[in-house]
Design brief:
Keywords: Lyase, Magnesium, Metal-binding. One of its GO terms (molecular function) is isocitrate lyase activity. One of its GO terms (biological process) is carboxylic acid metabolic process. It catalyses: D-threo-isocitrate = glyoxylate + succinate. Pfam families: ICL. The protein is an alpha/beta fold. The chain is about 50% helix and about 10% strand. The protein has 18 helices and 14 strands. An 8-stranded parallel sheet has the order 12-6-4-3-2-1-14-13. The protein has a 3-stranded mixed sheet with strand order 5-7-11, with no helix packed on it. The chain has a 3-stranded antiparallel sheet with strand order 8-10-9, with no helix packed on it. β1, α4 and β2 form a beta-alpha-beta unit. The longest helix has about 35 residues.
Length: about 525
């Protein structure tokens, strides 16, 4: 690891070779280098891939070492999240960022708000990765710049003990740059298209790419109807395409999350060709729904016929040509999807479920682990779930099984506020609070994420401010609900000029122009009111 002094020494050796570079300070060069520790997105991808691999190993040793992230849709939001994590917890260990395809579609497309159906520009995904890391690197620069200022002040006052203590903080500095789990949807096309987009995402800094087994041109949000999956061979080709992209770019520890939507998908795009008995195509085709045919005269013009075991069936096809799966085969298809993906190059699994139920998830994971013992999941703690109602109903059902009195509750109406302080509601809230810890231990979940929380927090905070500001509170709405809280909770963002890089710019101007620098941070800067 480069220390403050060793970075200065490296810069000085370079300057010593250039006798005409007068006025260039080795210490200023060192500061700028330390403030920008990652020169390329590939540097970031390699660094963060190593973090994820170490975290995965730590989880294998103890499931209490699960990791978490929140989905973000803008660089500033990601930056503020990681600044908050460092402020409250002192380190970023175990905390990542999630890049949600849903939020890219809804908030980052030139077409305007779009549904989560892979209709947005594919280039908007690597662009957001690059933006997120630009803001995270700026958070590094800002925090280090303040340490440099504090060290200079200590030196000027003759307090060498304090100066050395601050220099030690600089040497031990923990970057805001953390892994991003990046959503590539279903690959935005064929396997070559997937490979090309994966390269762009990795070059922007992605160490972890999540890909799903839906049809690219018929992709749906995981919590909507109409999902169509592809045969295993098609999905495995895309997993391999992502792996080749990682390997080509030298990110050998890159992580692939294979997501299966089979639990809620009732349709397949096509019937794969089986080359030999028991292969993946035959296993996939065993799930296809159809009518048993005993005589060729039963076939109509254009009908299709396949052999399924010892039977011949006419597959159930929709008018659009899609083929239906047998009912109640979702969990079996999920298990086969996951085992196959892990055996063919994926590192982590994502099982998209319709509710947050530890027993349901554990049931599938335990079956997968019979074949792949170290299988582990990334799990979507989705805002599409009604968490309050789901967990209150889980407690209600548990109470009924135990013979406990539930006569004071109506199962279908448990969302009502009248239940908020009841014993049932309090027990449900405790289960929600423990959900990530318990699911990590009991259901193999290595990483918990919320896909689009900051979409909802932005809407909620804006609604509250608009309601009061345009109402009777007027300016007090902003002062009381926003600025006063920023000050008291010590949000760095209250000094918005500093957060946007004004002080970093002043520092650079002084490097470049010396005493002639025209700086913005003087005594008349109104940000001094928040000192």
């Amino acid at each position: 690891m480069q220390t403050y002094n060793s970075t200065i020494d490296d810069a000085q050796r370079c300057l010593d070779k250039q006798h005409n570079w007068t006025g260039i300070s080795a210490e200023y060069i060192a500061r700028m280098r330390l403030q920008n520790r990652f020169n390329t997105g590939l540097d970031i991808a390699r660094y963060t891939a190593g973090i994820m691999r170490r975290d995965m190993a730590a989880y294998d040793n103890d499931p209490a070492n699960y990791t978490q992230s929140l989905g973000v849709w803008h660089g500033f939001i990601g930056q503020q999240k990681m600044i908050s994590v460092k402020k409250h917890f002192g380190e970023t260990k175990g905390r990542y960022l999630y890049l949600s395809g849903w939020m890219v579609a809804a908030m980052r497309s030139d077409f305007g708000p779009l549904p989560d159906q892979s209709m947005h520009e594919k280039t908007s995904v690597p662009a957001l990765i690059e933006e997120l890391y630009t803001f995270l690197k700026q958070a590094d620069a800002r925090e280090l710049q303040q340490l440099f200022r504090d060290m200079d002040a200590a030196r000027d006052s003759g307090d060498q003990v304090r100066a050395m203590a601050i220099q030690n903080q600089i040497d031990q500095f923990q970057t805001h740059v953390v892994p991003i789990i990046a959503d590539i949807d279903a690959g935005f096309g064929n396997e070559e298209a997937t490979y090309l987009l994966a390269k762009k995402m990795i070059e922007a800094g992605a160490c972890c790419i999540q890909i799903e087994n839906q049809v690219s041109d018929a992709k749906q949000c995981g919590h909507q109807d109409g999902k169509v999956t592809v045969p295993h061979e098609d999905f495995l080709a895309k997993i391999k395409a992502v792996r080749y992209a990682f390997m080509e770019l030298g990110v050998e520890e890159g992580v692939i999350v294979a997501r299966t939507d089979s639990l809620g998908a009732g349709l397949t795009q096509k019937i794969p060709v089986s080359m030999q008995a028991g292969d993946l195509a035959e296993q996939y085709n065993a799930f296809i729904d159809g009518e048993k045919i005993s005589n060729l005269s039963e076939l109509n013009s254009g009908d299709m016929l396949i052999k399924q075991g010892d039977d011949y069936i006419r597959p159930t096809r929709l008018p659009n040509g899609l083929v239906r799966f047998k009912a109640n085969t979702g969990e079996d298809r999920v298990v086969l999807d996951c085992i196959t993906s892990l055996q063919q190059g994926a590192d982590l699994l994502w099982i998209e479920t319709e509710k947050p139920h530890i027993g349901q998830i554990a049931g599938m994971v335990n079956r997968i682990r019979e074949v792949v013992p170290d299988a582990k999941l990334v799990y979507n703690n989705s805002p599409s779930f009604n968490w309050t109602l789901n967990f209150r109903q889980q407690v209600f059902d548990s109470w009924q099984e135990q013979g406990k009195d539930t006569s004071g509750y109506q199962r279908d109406n448990l969302m009502q506020a009248q239940y908020d302080e009841t014993e049932l509601a309090l027990e449900a809230d405790q289960k929600i609070q423990r959900f990530q810890r318990d699911a990590a231990k009991e259901a193999g979940i290595f990483h918990h994420l919320i896909t689009l929380p900051t979409y909802h927090t932005a809407a909620l905070s804006t609604d509250n401010l608009a309601k009061d500001y345009f109402g009777d509170m007027g300016m007090l709405a902003y002062v009381d609900k926003v600025q006063r809280q920023e000050i008291r909770q010590q949000l760095a963002c209250v000094k918005h000029q500093n957060m946007s890089g004004s002080d970093i710019g002043d520092e650079h101007k002084e490097y470049f122009s010396g005493t002639q620098a025209l700086k913005a941070g003087g005594k008349d800067n109104t940000m001094n009111q928040f000192a």
